[in-house]
Design goal:
Helix 15 packs parallel to helix 17 (about 515-525). This protein has about 550 residues and is of the alpha/beta class. Helices cover about 35% and strands about 20% of the residues. It starts with 7 loop residues before the first strand and ends with a helix.
Length: about 550
């Protein structure tokens, strides 16, 4: 805009930033249940959040379909007709659009609108949020549903500007891209990379996987569910969701209480094999035995089983060696639709860039350290995201006393409950730092409902605004770190701790205590009248 004056100022009760699972449900709660004036904005041209952007081939939920949806409306649940174990991206996007229309929310959604700055007025108790559309929102409440995994990470390889082929990131997939017969390179082999490699290999002329770190992955076991299974899911709605909310990872299965070495070798192999055959990464880590994520020896038993499967599946000895991990099985649990089998194809090759790094990009492709040019028409970056806080620190968000959120988080992102941050009154986050590490829709519902109840309490009791007390934020951060340190996850370099972003400080970003305990903390906070928060009158009292 040429002018510094906004074209339009809109005064509302609440602004929601982001229109994925979290933003949609938040808008529903604010409008339909609390009766507040609320708008949701999103930089995308459609709703759906993660599922709008991630349209890459093979995009699939890795939570099972019967728990990868909302549970707040039983009729909506009964009318959702997903018939496969896992859900593909087009189905999820169609579902979220249907939810928006079902509750007449589209009129309150402003698309292709990006938050460029947000400032809190200490005196008025109002957030002023500027956008790139010349519209400024003034709102008492600011709820950020920016997404855990939406700030794309494109590595800055030497010569990247020289590449004359098509360069794309899986998190911003172009709909006009046809990979049929093309020479395709894929950088990255995490959850997304595995899905892309498996889906693209059958149509590509040649696919080259550039792998930095070998991964442990198990079959997804995706399949069409029988009518009996589907009917049982609907009939057991209450019991299923009660189990989810009282579990740890909220994935829809009962987590094991059996220790790895409490059974015989034969029984252990049988349990691993049964779960391998059933499919699902979280099932393999948490339904088999209770100590895989905490006991190094137990972890090695699970890792050894997966290594044995890689040895059985991958035919070429050198490819098998490169694909076989030797470290802890302690990253986000992965599952796939035939990943290791894909490397048996004649048109698929593997470059281990951990051993043979990428030297540069040229007009025609990638040159590795050994001097080999890998010719490419398309280079796909499945290189993940600046997770959790990445989208927050990109925006100039300023709270009380003009404090910058980026400065507040300079030693790593902090919060109370993953939803509130000291010095930023009436600013709530859905899936903010140090929220629960679980299947996301149940965590999203839990957080949105708590935020909604909290806003309702502020309105009812005329509190003005509330913010988390500084010592409480520190205490929650310490709790999250202490719980994480009781697991093996911090010992693996993964995006869960920010290790995928060069220069980013390694820090805990999740509460690993499980959704049951997390919900208990939330219930206690609410029932006690929010003792961990300062109110406007508290904050403005003379010292």
């Amino acid at each position: 805009m040429a002018s510094h004056e906004p074209d339009q100022i809109r005064e509302i009760d609440a602004l929601v930033v982001g229109c994925g699972f979290g933003g949609i449900y938040m808008l529903y709660k604010l409008r339909r249940e609390l009766g507040l004036t609320a708008i949701a904005i999103d930089k995308a041209s459609g709703v759906g959040g993660t599922w709008f952007w991630n349209k890459y081939p093979g995009a699939l939920s890795d939570s099972e379909s019967f728990v990868y949806q909302y549970s707040f409306d039983r009729d909506l649940y009964d009318q959702t007709t997903w018939n496969t174990k896992f859900v593909r991206q087009p189905q999820i996007l169609e579902y979220l659009n249907g939810v928006v229309d079902r509750y007449s929310l589209r009129q309150d959604v402003a698309l292709e609108t990006t938050m460029t700055a947000a400032r809190f007025d200490d005196v008025a108790g109002i957030w002023t949020v500027t956008t790139d559309r010349g519209v400024t929102y003034k709102a008492k409440y600011l709820v950020n549903g920016l997404g855990l995994l939406s700030a794309t990470n494109v590595p800055n390889f030497p010569g990247i500007e020289n590449f004359e082929g098509r360069l794309v990131h899986t998190g911003a997939w172009p709909e006009d891209l046809d990979l049929t017969g093309k020479r395709v390179g894929v950088i990255g082999n995490g959850s997304t990379g595995g899905q892309v490699i498996t889906a693209v290999a059958p149509i590509a002329g040649h696919l080259t996987s550039f792998q930095r770190t070998p991964q442990y992955s198990v079959p997804a076991g995706n399949r069409v569910l029988s009518n009996e299974e589907l009917a049982r899911q609907k009939e057991n709605f209450e019991a299923n969701w009660d189990q989810v909310r009282n579990s740890s990872v909220a994935m829809g299965f009962v987590e094991s209480e059996v220790e790895t070495f409490s059974v015989s070798d034969e029984e252990r192999q049988r349990i691993f094999q049964r779960t391998w055959d059933e499919g699902g990464g979280f099932r393999f880590m948490f339904e088999t035995f209770c100590d895989i994520a905490t006991n190094p020896e137990a972890n090695e038993e699970a890792a050894k089983f997966i290594r044995g499967k890689i040895a059985e599946i991958v035919k070429d000895p050198e490819t098998r060696r490169k694909l076989t991990p030797t470290d802890l099985y302690a990253r986000r649990p992965l599952c796939d639709s035939g990943l290791y089998e894909t490397f048996n194809r004649d048109n698929v090759s593997l470059v281990h860039v951990g051993e043979n790094p990428i030297r540069e990009l040229t007009a025609n492709g990638i040159v590795t350290e050994d001097g080999v040019l890998h010719e490419l028409d398309v280079l796909i970056c499945a290189t993940g995201f600046d997770a959790v806080d990445g989208n927050y620190v990109k925006v100039d968000i300023r709270g009380r006393n003009n404090e910058s959120l980026k400065e507040h988080w300079q030693d790593g992102p902090t919060s109370y409950l993953g939803m509130a941050t000291t010095g930023f009154p009436n600013m709530f986050m859905i899936l903010g730092p140090n929220g629960p590490f679980t299947n996301l829709p149940p965590s999203i519902e839990t957080q949105v409902e708590w935020i909604s109840d909290t806003i309702g309490a502020i309105e009812k009791d005329a509190m003005g605004w509330i913010e988390a007390k500084p010592d409480i934020e520190t205490e929650w951060t310490d709790i999250c770190a202490d719980i994480a340190d009781q697991t093996l996850f911090p010992k693996a370099a993964s995006w869960i701790f920010g290790a995928n972003i060069p220069g980013k400080k390694r820090t805990v970003m999740f509460y690993l205590g499980g959704i049951k305990e997390y919900r208990s903390v939330l219930d206690n906070e609410k029932a006690s009248g929010y003792p961990s928060f300062l109110t406007q009158s508290d904050a403005l009292e003379p010292a």
